[in-house]
Design brief:
The protein has about 150 residues and is mainly β. The chain has 1 helix and 11 strands. The chain is about 5% helix and about 40% strand.
Length: about 150
């Protein structure tokens, strides 16, 4: 199994649960806030976790919203999924936005987002004169949903 190394940035966060899977088949690790946060309607904030992580080379972290928060309160993540590169060692923070009509308060230690660790392949960029033909061709932005 691939390891995700986690560092607590302060002794004051030792009581907050580390990123963890809620169930045996969960794909995302739950992330928690390291401080109390209130989001007013249409407000967005960078919410701290009090953690730094070391993602293995060849992998990335993807920060995604929690579906329950979206459904119940209109809470999402801006720049979703947010990408965390394997060489980033700063504090893991989550950019939350309140799309709802009421203020939402998150208590310290509450789950705020999910972290997916995913492998990727690097590519070599090459300039060419022509690209291979395809059925779709240059159609985009809704092209495949029309007749």
């Amino acid at each position: 199994m691939t390891k995700l190394l986690v560092k607590r940035l302060s002794d004051s966060t030792s009581d907050i649960a580390l990123p963890s899977y809620a169930t045996e088949h969960s794909s995302g690790l739950d992330l928690r806030t390291s401080e109390d946060v209130t989001l007013e309607p249409r407000e967005y904030k960078l919410v701290p976790t009090g953690l730094a992580i070391e993602i293995p080379e060849g992998y990335e972290g993807q920060v995604r919203p929690r579906s329950g928060l979206a459904l119940k309160h209109g809470i999402g993540c801006l720049n979703s999924p947010g990408t965390i590169d394997a060489d980033y060692r700063g504090e893991l923070k989550v950019l939350l936005i309140n799309h709802g009509k009421a203020a939402v308060r998150f208590a310290r230690g509450e789950r705020i987002a999910q972290l997916i660790i995913s492998s990727y392949k690097k590519v070599e960029v090459e300039v060419v004169e022509d690209l291979a033909e395809s059925v779709r061709s240059a159609g985009g932005f809704g092209h495949t949903g029309t007749s």
